[in-house]
Amino acid sequence: MSTDTGSVALVGDEVVENVVRAALFAALTGVFSYVSFQLPVSPVPYTLQVLGIFLAGVFLGPRWGAASLALYVVAGAVGAPVYAYGASGIGQLFSPWGGYLWSYPFAAGLLGYVAHGTDERTPTGEIALWRLAAGLTAATVVIYAFGTVGYAYFGDLALFADPVRALVSAALVTAVPFVPGEILKAVVAVLAARSERLRGA
Amino acid sequence: MLSHAPGDTLGHRLDPRTKLAAQAAIAAVALARSTPAWLLALTLVCLVALRGCGLSVRAVYAEYRGVLPFLLVAPLVGALRFGPPWIEPAGVRDPLLAVYRTVLLLALAAAYVRTTSPRESRAAIARLVPGRAGRFLGLGVALVFRFLPLLRADLRRLREGSWVRLGDERRVDRRVVHLAVGALERAFRRADALALALRARCLSWNPTPPALSFARRDYAVLCLTGALIAAAVAW
Lengths: 201, 235
Prior knowledge:
The structure holds two protein chains of two kinds.
Chain A: H1 13-32, E1 36-38, E2 45-47, H2 49-77, H3 98-116, H4 129-154, H5 163-174, H6 179-193
Antiparallel strand pairs in A: 1-2
Helix pairs in contact in A: 1-2, 2-3, 2-6, 3-4, 4-5
Chain B: H1 10-13, H2 16-32, H3 36-52, H4 57-64, H5 68-79, H6 93-115, H7 118-128, H8 131-164, H9 172-200, H10 216-234
């Protein structure tokens, strides 16, 4: 067993806090993927997984939000049961719904960037409502764009031969039924960002 | 739910980096060569891998039974046309092969999960990804494995507390806000306590990495993986 005898490079206090928060948000996104609820307007059962992405972008900012979701994807790939309905493994990244998983770090990073306005984190309670709304919309678009293209590509729906038909039919399965649930999750993310109980976070 | 189980099969004794490399290589070959002949060959590879990891096909089927209906939607979508004749049976073939390919990759992932402990995965990531990124991913993955059951228990307590107070009769948005804010509060509290503990223990970017070493069996598996890729490139 090798031992590193060089000088010890301590992790800075602020970075420790951010690393831990990133890991906890990755785990929280995994826990949310077990929770499902039903809306009266759609027969699809929604999981709260995407809420975890929204919250990571809003509460951790662009850099650590993206890092948190990268951690989520890697942890799931090596066996942590964090993907939808407790699934895990590298195979999920190449399955028809793998496009969603690839999108999460980008979506959280973009949401954080639009909401916070810079690549640094500003206190959550001070984020303007229009910035939150724009960020959440952009993140949702990224998730569905990756998800739809991923479904058409990994599901071999002739993406290159007939792209319009492939993407439209993929969107009918992967995006359209989920829009009502996404609106609800975006509203919940805004209310959580405005919550007095989380003011000091 | 499938999780790591200690054992002494060939799969358990392989280095986690070998298993990750083999999975990635087989996924690449399956994506690049989704023909019936190649998928048949990869099926044999998967059956050998499952046997080497002490997993039965039945156990893998039981694990992924729930996702099969979602997978089988793809061939139906493939047959859909936006104009006469509306349904084109020939469009089913490629998505069906893609579904089969996905099932093979999920089976391999199940073999990895069954035979590899979180600690080994963490060590593999810390060694495969260089520098601070590798350290971050290794530490973070370990924390995700550690905190997942705790946060799940937090969330269960929140939901049970809500149910006994007839919370399930509230509007769905209020229920979800209550759950999300409560879960976040607990997650932040746990994060603050953990960050304090890690600072007190002088968390560093360059700790002694956990021991991992390649044995002869790892080289044999890597050679076979290389041969598979070479064959896929050649044919």
